[in-house]
From TrEMBL:
The keyword Repressor does not apply. Keywords: Membrane, Transmembrane, Transmembrane helix. Belongs to the ammonia transporter channel (TC 1.A.11.2) family. It is a multi-pass membrane protein. It is found in: Membrane. One of its GO terms (molecular function) is ammonium channel activity. This is Ammonium transporter AmtB-like domain-containing protein. Its main location: membrane. Residues 20-434 form the Ammonium transporter AmtB-like domain. It comes from the Eukaryota. It comes from Aureobasidium subglaciale (strain EXF-2481). GO terms for cellular component: plasma membrane. InterPro entries: Ammonium/urea_transptr, Ammonium_transpt, NH4_transpt_AmtB-like_dom.
């Protein structure tokens, strides 16, 4: 048992400015998790809005417990080239011992928000068809066997980090991982293998495409996610320095250019402005900048946002094709188009345009840079390897996990057709965002019926 004196001595060795900065970034980052759920809620049908929001709350709750038990240790423990050890099981000795210049417990909390955010994005693949109960074991197992190994491989001393990947805030552990997981969930729900398949009432079907039902939810999600992402990328420096400021600025510029590019393309085609298009454009820009925010300058970030919007918008068209309908392709939250494809493009583009001079703005980081500015052709190959490993690992393990959960009686992952038709709020929740919440209380009076009005 570590004494209070030892903890306080370790705390004195930490930099108070850096610690305060990362503490503030953590607080500002946390709202991104429920905001992801709010975005999915806006995308869903009116009768499934609350059930589409709930997985984000499950993600932050289950991931927090998992991270405390084993997640942090598996991701950032010493371990081997693929996964950490259990040295910090139940956060043993994770207190004020410095990680860099901040206390270990603060570093852990900041990294937990990454894990829960990725999970909230990923489980969107089950929206409008997947039951909520099976998501609880899936989230715990996913964090343990999908996210933690990827985080360790890239950031925790694993072989991808040793290989020299440039992944500032999570092109692969965040976006490719979440997009691949969401895709695995969606495909399994279209073609279940085990208990969900045995029920004639659970016959999977291609959901009819629909517009987002609640633009206000999208608006609030956009404002929250955009603002929180600035803290995400700024805080990834784990210290308060000029690189933190640059990371925030390039992130904001990339999101802005992505938002305007997608919005203008929609306006050109329809003659109308669209909040949905602006939302998706900003998200595509944020996805593009995530792996490169600590390695590129402002001008490059501007063009990254444009490229992310154009490419992701083209990828979004996949779900509207006849092929997608025949193969029961469902991408309710456009996770594959924005996070998976955008993550691939952003990760590879980082290898092309990373600059060692920008990386050195914190006075500590030394990288060899990318292809175009520093002539490091090898970096492109390293980035491609990272992206392919990340997608393969996240997709295959996620698919196996959801299939195993589907084997357990009572944990069938696919809702029956009747429940999908009436809406997931009615079948999965005892509450609703709309009129069902007040059914039977249309004539509600605030006082007992015996009280007479004068």
């Amino acid at each position: 048992m570590i004494s209070a004196t030892e903890v306080l001595t370790a705390w004195e060795a930490c930099d108070k400015t850096d610690s305060a900065f990362i503490l503030i970034c953590s607080v500002f980052c946390w709202p991104i998790i429920p905001a992801v759920g709010l975005g999915y809620s806006g995308y869903s049908t009116r009768r499934s809005g609350l059930a589409s929001f709930m997985p984000a709350l499950l993600s932050v709750s289950v991931c927090t417990i998992q991270w405390w038990l084993v997640g942090y240790s598996l991701a950032y423990g010493e371990g081997n080239a693929f996964i950490g050890d259990l040295k910090h099981f139940m956060h043993m000795d994770v207190l004020a011992e410095p990680v860099g210049t901040i206390p270990a417990i603060l570093f852990s909390e900041f990294q937990l928000i990454f894990c829960a955010t990725v999970c909230a994005i990923a489980v969107g693949g089950a929206c409008e068809r997947g039951r909520l109960l099976p998501l609880i074991p899936f989230i715990f197992l996913w964090a343990t066997f999908v996210y933690c190994p990827l985080a360790h491989m890239v950031w925790g001393g694993g072989f991808l980090g040793e290989l020299g990947v440039l992944d500032f805030a999570g092109g692969t552990p965040v976006h490719i991982c979440s997009g691949a997981t969401a895709t695995a969930l969606s495909i399994y729900l279209s073609y279940p293998l085990f208990r969900s398949r045995k029920s004639a009432a659970r016959t999977p079907a291609h959901l009819a495409l629909h517009k987002p039902h609640n633009t206000l939810s999208q608006l609030l999600a956009l404002v929250t996610i955009w603002g929180s992402w600035l803290a995400f990328d700024a805080g990834t420096t784990l210290a308060f320095n000029f690189k933190s400021i640059m990371a925030m600025c390039v992130t904001n510029l990339c999101a802005a250019s992505g938002a305007m590019t997608w919005a203008f393309m929609t306006y050109y085609e329809t003659g109308k402005w669209s909040l949905d298009s602006t939302f998706l454009g900003a998200i595509s820009g944020l996805v593009m900048i995530t792996p490169s925010a600590g390695f590129i300058d402002m001008a490059t970030a501007f063009f990254f946002g444009i490229a992310g919007a154009v490419i992701s918008r083209q990828a979004l068209r996949i779900k509207f094709t006849d092929v997608a309908r025949r193969w029961k392709w469902v991408d309710n939250g456009d996770t594959f188009a924005t996070h998976c494809i955008g993550g691939f493009v952003g990760t590879i583009a980082t290898g092309l345009f990373a600059q060692k001079e920008v990386a050195a703005l914190d006075g500590v980081t030394e990288v060899v840079g990318g292809v175009f500015f520093d002539g490091n052709v090898r970096q492109l190959g390293v980035q491609v390897v990272e992206a392919l490993i990340g997608f393969t690992w996240a997709f295959s393990v996620s698919y196996m996990l959801i299939a195993l959960i589907d084997c357990v009686p009572g944990w069938e992952v696919l809702a029956v057709d009747k429940d999908v038709m009436v809406g997931m709020d009615a079948s999965q929740m005892g509450e609703s965002l709309y009129e069902d919440q007040w059914k039977g209380e249309e004539d509600y009076q605030p006082f007992a019926a015996t009280i007479q009005l004068e």
